Amino acid sequence: MAMAGGDSVGAGIRGCSTLHLGLRVDGGRGTPAPFAPPQRLVVVGFYRYVRNPMYVGFAVGWIGLWVVFGHANPRVIAAVAAVALGVHLFVVLYEEPTLRKKFGTDYEEYCRNVRRWWPGVRGWDKS
After folding, report:
1. What pTM does this model have?
2. Ramachandran region, residue 47 (left: φ > 0; alpha: ψ -120 to 50; beta: rest)
3. What are the counts of helices (DSSP H) followed by strands (DSSP E) for the chain?
4. Lowest mean pLDDT: which of 18-27, 39-48, 61-70, 107-116?
5. How distant, in Å, are the alpha carbons of 12, 62, 65, 81, 118 from that of 5?
6. How much is the pLDDT for 114?
7. 105 vs 47: CA distance, rounded Å
8. 123 has a pLDDT exceeding 90
9. Which residues have CB under 8 Å from 93's CB, separation 6+?
10. Residue 12: which of 47, 58, 50 has the closest Cα?
């Protein structure tokens, strides 16, 4: 059976985001490990278009699976909506304040120029 377009796109976004995370961290002189975090904000790859590309890629992948296999019942939809709300609250209440505290005005500028969930058409370059 051929892979659905949405699932392929979601897998691609997740994979590329993970690869770009390495570039983002390395360019920031640190690692993804909590004991050696990046020292400066580096925005490359999909992070130039959307602030949370791994979450977006995961969601696109799941939507693609639903399109191909169907069978989305109300309980599953309610559970997914609850998880999506939980992820949103985690990002808004924990991740973003932590990044604002760590990276200051660089992160503020990034937030003003790159959307949280919906990718922009043009990638942002801090010039």
Report:
1. 0.69
2. alpha
3. 5, 0
4. 18-27
5. 10, 11, 9, 22, 18
6. 94
7. 17
8. no
9. none
10. 58
